[in-house]
Amino acid sequence: MLTILFDGIAYGMLLFILACGLTITLGLMNFINLAHGAFAMTGGYVTVVMMNRYGLSFYWCLPAAFFVSAALGAILERTLYRRLYQASHLDQVLFSVGLVFMAVAAADYVMGGQQQLIQLPPELSGRTEIIGIGIGRYRLFTIVVCAFLAMGLQLILSKTRFGSRLRAAVDDRRVAMGLGINVPVVFALTFAFGSGLAGLGGAMGAEILGLDPNFPLKFMIYFLIVVAVGGTSTVSGPFLAAILLGIADVAGKYYVPAIGPFVIYGLMILMLIVRPNGLFARGGAR
Amino acid sequence: MTRPLLVIDGLAAGYGEAAVLSGISLTIEEGRTLALLGRNGTGKTTLVDTIAGLTTHHAGRIHLLGQDITRLRADRRAAAGIGWVPQERNIFKSLTVEENLTAIARSGPWTLKRVFAMFPRLEERRRNLGNQLSGGEQQMLAVGRALMVNPRLLLLDEPLEGLAPIIVDELLAALRQIVRSEGISAIIIEQKARKILPLSDDALILDRGSIVHHGSSAELLVNDDVMAEHLAVSRIGTSA
Amino acid sequence: MSVVADGSRALAPMPDDAARSQIRRRSRIRLYELVIWFLAVAAIIVLPSKMLILTEIAILALFAVSLDLVLGFAGIVSLGHTAFFGLGAYVAGLFARHYFAEPVAGLILAGAASGLLGFATSFLVLRGSDLTRLMTTLGIALMLGELANQMGWLTGGADGLSGFSLDPILGLFEFDLWGRNGYIYCLAVLFTSTMIARRIAYSPFGLSLKAIKTNPMRAAMVGVPARRRIIIVYTVAAVMAGFSGALLTQTTSFVSPDVLAFHRSADVLLVLVIGGTGYLYGGILGAIGFTLLRDWLSVVTPQYWMFWIGLLLIILVLVGRDRLAGWMQYLPGRLAQSRSSRS
Amino acid sequence: MIALETQGLKRRFGAFVVTNDVSLRVERGARHALIGPNGAGKTTLINLLTGVLKPSAGCILLEGEDITALPAHRRVKKGITRTFQINQLFGEYTPLETLALAIGERDGIGGNLVRDLGSFDDVVDEAAELLSRFGLGSVMGQRTATLAYGKQRLLEIALAFASKPRVLLLDEPAAGVPEDERHEVLKIVSDLPGDVTVLLIEHDMDLVFSFATCITVLVAGAIFAEGPATEVANDARVKAVYLGESA
Amino acid sequence: QEVVKIGLILPMTGPFASTGRQVEAGVKAYMAINGDTAGGKKIEVVLRDDAGTADQTRRIAQELVVNDGVSMLMGFGLTPLAMSVAPVLNQAKIPAIITSATTSAIMKQSEYFVRTSMGGPQSALPVATWAVENGLKRVVTLVTDYGPGHDIEKGFVDQYKKEGGEIVESVRVPLQNPDFAPFLQRVRDAKPDAVFVFVPSGVGSLFMKQFVERGLADAGIKLIATGDVTDDDLLNGIGEAAKGVITGHFYSADHDSPENKAFVEEVRKSNNGMRPNFMSVGGYDAMHLAYMALEKSGGDTDGTKLVEAMKGAEWTSPRGPIMIDPQTRDIVQDIYIREVKEVDGELYNVEFTKYEKIRAPNSAQ
Ligand SMILES: Nc1ncnc2c1ncn2[C@@H]1O[C@H](COP(=O)(O)OP(=O)(O)OP(=O)(O)O)[C@@H](O)[C@H]1O
Ligand SMILES: Nc1ncnc2c1ncn2[C@@H]1O[C@H](COP(=O)(O)OP(=O)(O)OP(=O)(O)O)[C@@H](O)[C@H]1O
Ligand SMILES: [Mg+2]
Ligand SMILES: [Mg+2]
């Protein structure tokens, strides 16, 4: 029972790590970036290459995955994305789907089509029994990382001026410029940060979710569910949503396997009916 | 003891290829207010936005406190000391009143506290989101926001529109006070000349993108001919 | 106000020819429309070896046209439009297998079933942001797909529904191996549906749809009952999507849960956006472009065609559809003008 | 006869009461002005009357009929409509289409999905006539989004006229309209038939006093003063909270 | 010289791309080793991608027949993809050799289907027998919830019960399932002797890792499976976790025969080190069957004749001796029980027992 709860939370946290970058690009920057998974995949492949080809430690891979994806994000932002902030949402969809297609094919070409697997350091693999609850070590690690991440993000976005500058720039780019906000820099930094988070998520998720060139397409739905249910204006919304969905999914599959696959979609629709703008909607700002 | 704060020389600007302003030259001294008048569509907003760096520059120079800002990007100009109230207010809708003020704040005499003291109404609504404000409250916030930049030059595009008469009086008095005592200057656009002229030092009238009159406010106020010619009340349909 | 209800002729407004002709110009048949339909028919004779891919295009085009009613006109973004496509496909398949294998009857039944589903789910898309609608519709389609997968006794589960074949259309035209009759059949359904959609688009109803899309608050304030309008158009679109699903089943004699898969909703959205939303022919042009391109690329480079499609999508967005389609401005009939009204 | 009446109308956002127990009566055919400090709740009141917002308590009567529960579009059908403080237009439509839409809805053909809009000549003619009355005849075929601000403002008002309301609510109609055209606009409004009721919100006191016969002053969500225009203009308390010295 | 075209339809993109890749490698390897002529005709393979979508498969098949004039079709990565071409075969009367899809139901859809992969639960039956023989009396089955999974589950359960074992529980995992945690926990809580697993090959590696992580092995639950789970292609990536896993399957890259040596060598050489797996050998044998049929018919490409020629064909494949059952057109082959072991620093499925001439039982549906 508690083990299931634990697994559910861990799974939810993993979803959150993967999706929180999207909360930033889609939620805060209002850019429908369906290519989010491509950045996550980049992080995953960085980890695979570093560990399997160069034998580096998993712990080094996490920051590396973050920075490589962030750098990639920054480059793409400067060259491509920035041209589309003013474009319609549909154009953004088209553009980012194009990027996904290219990423999928490119990953296939460079890394091959098969599942990539990594070997975790021994202290992270296996499980420990604590008061009758089976705790997977890696899952515990995920939960800890995620909890820090969520707190950090929440602080940055709500307590620093950077958060409000960013939202100001999204609301009205021209006026934000006219009032002294360096919009291009704010956007580039934010986008890079969001991409970096995706990369980190990809690196962390490779162990449990697997990694192959179809990763960006396969998990796109999950990212979107988390962000949609959680709402796009806070970090705590998607965080809670991810945990809720994680627990519901795991528990549903454990207790009622026959309708397991319906649980997550059903829950999503239900929550969207009750709270169309997400868990913590900010006064219907959008 | 005044020195030129803003010097504009032979300025031409517009939107992309389209030219709106041409041959604009003017100087504003520290501590003075300039009323910018003209009929609809004559380029008032364009002039102010050009000073803020938000239109396409075609020719001429702009100097702020001796520094050439002609090529500076808008956000740098704000840093150099320009505070701007856009005509359509453009409150950041997903920020609260307080965040609207702090997001763009720069250090200086104007603080949150002082803005709130000037517009108590804003303090009452400090946690409201930008898009949950009444029209007049948005106008106050736009003015407060420009002050939070702690500018040397205030650009106010129809700042009185939508404000209650009593607030209009108070705001104008406060602006005068600020400009006088803190050595900053202001350009104020207003549709109703008779309302603003008694309070401003100088007046400038634009027509079809060019300056057609430049002089002291007091003189203009009694110069019915000029008023009638360039700010005609009866003619319709001359605006672009 | 000079328009008075007392019926006195003298006070009736003067007929304004400029205004009348301006309004009528909206619904004028444009040259490019004639060209498209002419080419579609000519293909029957000129391209006998391409019937199958043309059939696929016609089906996808119909699907996209139906999505355009919802997205381009009512402004509802849907990532689950395939729910109606898939239901239509299954209904047509089951009907042919168990009851009656005449295609037209199956088509109508499939449309009706999808329409019902559309009506029932339209209540879920009435409120919420773009993202909410995107996900609600997606959720419905995914659940339906899962249902098709689980109800193996009825649908054949993941292996799909097979083992049926269709009678000749209206008892006269048999589905041949070259796909000629199949194409003519699909084209006829596409044409009829597009013409119906076109009627709707230029009717007062259609006018009010785009008003709801651009400014719901103002639309309500001129008296537009937004909910009812959305429910109606969503239902109509679902019927058409059901038709296209039925056509797929009938021309392939096979249905699998794939008809309810996410990628189908995504593809049709892509196709529509590529072609441009809000003028009906976007779906058709998009379907032609996308399918031909994908087919060609997947022959040239079976493994990596996605890369090139991706690249083209990006170029399309960055360069701008309008600029790419710039040459069309020289066509009399002003395609470009009608395109500018897309969102 | 009373055209529009509210009884104990209340609206709060969270704990903040924006409309506080407002009981307002507007006579049929009145030229009634609603003034008050910024944030007093004038726009909110209009939103409540037209169904954009739902009241927390109280009821709204239109010619004696309770319309509190009706959605916005049904209220329009009952004869009440408004303009918006900030333009709310259909950017992609031409003024002609915009008005045709409103007139069509009024005449109950909006749900027709089989007949071409172009075949409703009477609707189109009426729209054209209304456009020319508002000086928009020359731009009726242009996309609204590309019109000059002043023209958009006029269209905003024309659009409310198109519904042929019996009660018309105007929220700062003159804001952004150039000074020389303000009086023109108000003139068109004044010229409405005598049985059409008009409720005007405006901060331009010249306009208010030249237009309104009766004024209600709203302060902090509640009715503060009410009466004939001249009386209110000279009310010392109103001067203190709203008018200042200028009036 | 006349050309005979063979249409090869595979999922080369999308989630099942690795299947396509392996089969293609097998086909190419056969042609590299055996040349490109058969029955006096030049063989040309036309590869098309269906992205794993049934209606694409069907259209491509039809186009290949009508426009390209192929005499044979080949490929089909998944059951629905194969199912969808049945009407085309029946109408056009040309043979289609299935290289990957395994469901039993396919073969009934058309007289023109011939199969070189595996028939339904073929590989699961010997595993059931072996399990009972080796003292695993209580088993939980865990299969992926789709056609082949159902097939295999039923085959295994029937056989296992027949042999006297007890099925504790049957768990089905959705096809789109990122996390196995709840299912593995269910298995664990049921406390069986062993868990029998079938999941598609790419998913197998993830499953293995989570199996170990959850400590099922430590809890004394043995893992037995079909060979999909310890796919040769991915085995090394799974690493330590895979060691000691017992699986039953028809092919291992470790199979000791000259045919296999040559095959593995060729695939590695031309696919930058890739190790062939059971998909690959399916493609290889499909080509062999096609060549044989053409030789037999003397180059006649009449579909019905070709199918007749294929029926009863017998040869030694890299996997071992195999035969096409003349009645069912399905493959008859030996199933090996293997254990994952390290050989020369790499992991292999090392065969240690074999059950000969297993026929595909026409179970399920
Ligand atoms: N974004 C734009 N692109 C092109 N032309 C523009 C744009 N904005 C304004 N214009 C044109 O520039 C001219 C000057 O406009 P501007 O807004 O500066 O006038 P204004 O004097 O501020 O008028 P108002 O009193 O209405 O505010 C007008 O003819 C207008 O049509
Ligand atoms: N959605 C909302 N949530 C919270 N507060 C709101 C909301 N909408 C409006 N308010 C508040 O209600 C008060 C009344 O606003 P309203 O727009 O009715 O004022 P008004 O009288 O029209 O003022 P003005 O003359 O400035 O337009 C304001 O203080 C505003 O901040
Ligand atoms: Mg202006
Ligand atoms: Mg207001």
UniProtKB/TrEMBL annotation, chain A:
Its main location: membrane. It comes from the Bacteria. The keyword Disulfide bond does not apply. Pfam families: BPD_transp_2. The chain crosses the membrane at residues 12-36, 56-81, 93-112, 138-158, 179-200, 220-247, 254-274. It is a multi-pass membrane protein. It is found in: Cell membrane. Keywords: Amino-acid transport, Cell membrane, Membrane, Transmembrane, Transmembrane helix, Transport. InterPro entries: ABC_transp_permease, BCAA_transport_permease. PANTHER family: ABC TRANSPORTER ATP-BINDING PROTEIN, BRANCHED-CHAIN AMINO ACID TRANSPORT SYSTEM PERMEASE PROTEIN LIVH. Belongs to the binding-protein-dependent transport system permease family. LivHM subfamily. This is Branched-chain amino acid ABC transporter permease.
From TrEMBL, chain B:
Transmembrane segments: none annotated. It holds the Pfam family ABC_tran. SUPFAM superfamilies: P-loop containing nucleoside triphosphate hydrolases (SSF52540). InterPro entries: AAA+_ATPase, ABC_transporter-like_ATP-bd, ABC_transporter-like_CS, BCAA_Transport_ATP-bd_LivF, P-loop_NTPase. Residues 6-233 form the ABC transporter domain. Coiled coil: none annotated. It comes from the Bacteria. Gene3D superfamilies: P-loop containing nucleotide triphosphate hydrolases. GO terms for molecular function: ATP binding. Keywords: Amino-acid transport, ATP-binding, Nucleotide-binding, Transport. SMART domains: AAA. Belongs to the ABC transporter superfamily. This is ABC transporter ATP-binding protein. It comes from Pseudorhizobium endolithicum.
UniProtKB/TrEMBL annotation, chain C:
InterPro entries: ABC_transp_permease, LivM-like. The keyword Lipoprotein does not apply. The chain crosses the membrane at residues 34-63, 69-92, 104-126, 182-209, 230-248, 268-292, 304-321. It is found in: Cell membrane. This is Branched-chain amino acid ABC transporter permease. Keywords: Cell membrane, Membrane, Transmembrane, Transmembrane helix. Signal peptide: none annotated. It is a multi-pass membrane protein. It comes from Pseudorhizobium endolithicum.
Automatic annotation (TrEMBL), chain D:
Residues 4-245 form the ABC transporter domain. This is ABC transporter ATP-binding protein. The keyword Thylakoid does not apply. GO terms for molecular function: ATP binding. Keywords: ATP-binding, Nucleotide-binding, Transport. The lineage of its organism: Bacteria, Pseudomonadati, Pseudomonadota, Alphaproteobacteria, Hyphomicrobiales. Coiled coil: none annotated. InterPro entries: AAA+_ATPase, ABC_AA/LPS_Transport, ABC_transporter-like_ATP-bd, BCA_ABC_TP_C, P-loop_NTPase. It comes from the Bacteria.
